[in-house]
């Protein structure tokens, strides 16, 4: 696996390296897919650039690689994307990822608190944001200059707990919080726009609760980075990131079946060929 | 109990900067109001938002604080059950979920405001501990254990006006151990929570009317259950009674029966619990207990012959 160098401090985003890294990370997920019967491949591909931007661009790190910022993957089924990022950072090992969902390994299909780099257990939707509020209040009480980043899915925004937290964040005057809604347009295999259209648009709902809101292309790292950097200093920020479920492999894109499925060997080879052709 | 809890929390907060009080639309009463005034950043009212109550508490605990999530018992655990299970217990975090007015304390408010099965539900979750002190002094002692406890805790409380029952208790409070509240030889009554006062009255009646020496034990720690302590009681007393304001399933009654079976106990064992039923009965706390079959008049005749 090609390992791209990572910046030691936040606030830097090398677009060329970032694009290479996202391609390498998608390839790594495809490789792992050949060792297990199923995995959440498409939901990981949709948030790949979002996680790359957060971890390599936004989160501040000291010389040992440790970050004082917090990342919570509320859409826990995107865990493969987080695992490959943590492998890039050297926080998870190659053998950790090779053991994914095997009985001798320690990584499961959802993030498990206590493992290196995993700051909260998720998997059931609608839990990450309320927990993030607690993290923000704890940081404020400890007088830590620390930012908290949460990635949610658009379908996850159907959970009532999220709207409790969206409202509470403003009422509790929580500021140093940026959430990315990975808006790939699907819940599992069902298009949101046709089955649950009133979830959309999300932007006006966040605005109504007093949040700072941006709408961006969720696969453009520079745009994602700039949106986060332009955050208002006195309000939490919601970045509605439009993405493509299964992004990067043509036959997986917007095809519901790839929510939870491993490609066959032929499909795997085709997917790798596509990634390399686009390099 | 509410005031005792508030006082104990307030006193600990003076020396422990890690304590947070998170409430869901509960007005800070007694010493909680003082806490809020003195430590405004550590008192958080999330509003009518119980999932946030628990999730936010878990987030504070992830960063090293010790939050108490406090509201009426049914709201504290039923609405945000998955947050209690996933955010608190799965991550094994030191969050204390304080369920005030448990059982049928809120007797006129109906089943939505009752916790008939909270001990069963909370005890079934891995990593969770369950404490239900029987009177204000026992709660005060229990709070010391709660403060030392480094994991999830469900603290089941009554509300107000509970009498002191443990002033002359032979045993001290020890987390995870049954506590003898009164010594006796012929009959032993096991109970927990405020309904212990009914056990005390029944014990006194047995002694006065039948000259049967009656021991009383507070099983304040429902999880981890003191199996050895219960087994010893089942060996020691010829008649053992369980009185609890909770359904038998998953409560103390069924657990004592399990231990009795496992340890080949030979004693007579009777259990008195809430009915597994949503009763549409309103009135005083005693009225609703009675509708469930829990009153001295109903229990005493059944055990006078035991």
Q: Which tags fit this structure?
A:
heterodimer; A: 279 residues; alpha/beta; Rossmann fold; 5-stranded parallel sheet; two-stranded antiparallel sheet; 11 helices; 39% helix; disordered N terminus; B: 306 residues; 7-stranded mixed sheet; 5-stranded mixed sheet; 40% helix; 20% strand
Detailed description of the structure:
The complex is a heterodimer of chains A (279) and B (306). Chain A is α/β, with parallel strands linked by helices and 279 residues long. Chain A has helices spanning 15-33, 41-46, 48-58, 79-88, 94-98, 128-141, 160-171, 192-195, 202-208, 221-229, 265-277, and strands at residues 70-73, 148-153, 177-183, 186-187, 190-191, 212-217, 237-242. Chain A has a single domain (15-277), classed as Rossmann fold, CATH 3.40.50.970. Chain A contains 11 helices and 7 strands. Chain A is globular. Mean pLDDT of chain A is 94; it is low at 1-9. By secondary structure, chain B is of the alpha/beta class. Chain B folds into 2 domains: 2-156, Thiamin diphosphate (ThDP)-binding fold, Pyr/PP domains (Rossmann fold, 3-Layer(aba) Sandwich), CATH 3.40.50; 179-304, Rossmann fold (3-Layer(aba) Sandwich). In chain B, the strands form 2 sheets. Chain B has a 7-stranded mixed sheet, with helices on both faces. In chain B, strands 7-9-8-11-12 form a 5-stranded mixed sheet, sandwiched between helices. Chain B starts with a helix and ends with a helix. The model of chain B has no long low-confidence stretch (mean pLDDT 97). At the A-B interface, α6 and α7 of A face α3 and α5 of B.
